[in-house]
Amino acid sequence: MARVTRSSAKKDDKAPAKAEKTEAAAKAAPKKKKAAAKKESPAKKEAKSESDVIEKAVGKKATVKINEEKPGKGNFVVRISGKEEPVVELLGMKRPFPPLKQLDMDEVCEKVLAALA
């Protein structure tokens, strides 16, 4: 003869309730966010805007290439192909790059356009 006790009956009754709770908790849990697209740095945005100015002024005679040859960490170099000396050369800067922040990009554009002429 099988004997059912109260404690075993309670365990059987709670089992479906626990499963329902875990399913509800899984649905209510926040979903993982998708990785955000990598934002462009302010320096790259400004470099692109300045390159647009140069390309408009010179036309199709010049193309602007950003970091074709990486100058190294903490360096900012503007070169014109065919010329030995760079137009602007800031080497060995420490973060947060104060000389680069103080650099007048309009003046750099003028120097580049003068070197191209």
Set down the secondary structure blueprint.
Elements: H1 6-28, H2 42-58, E1 76-78, E2 88-90, H3 98-102, H4 105-116
Antiparallel strand pairs: 1-2
From the spread of the alpha carbons, the general shape counts as elongated
Going by helix content, strand content and strand pairing, the class is mainly alpha
- Give the % helix: 40-55%
Number of strands: 2
* Low-confidence blocks of residues: none
Mean pLDDT level: 74
N- and C-termini, Cα separation: 107 Å
What is the count of helical runs? 4
Main sheet strand line-up = 1-2
Pattern of helices and strands: HHEEHH
Major pleated sheet: 2 strands, antiparallel
- Gyration radius over CA: 32 Å
> What amount of the residues lies in strands?
5-15%
GO cellular component, one term: Golgi apparatus
Protein name: Selenoprotein H
Region (Disordered): 1-54
Biased composition (Basic and acidic residues): 9-24, 37-54
General description of the model:
This protein has 117 residues and is mostly helical. It has a domain at 42-116. The protein has four helices and two strands, in the order H-H-E-E-H-H. The chain has helices at residues 6-28, 42-58, 98-102, 105-116; strands spanning 76-78, 88-90. A two-stranded antiparallel ribbon has the order 1-2. Helix 2 runs parallel beside helix 4 (105-116). Residues 9-24, 37-54 have a biased composition (Basic and acidic residues). It comes from Seminavis robusta. This is Selenoprotein H.
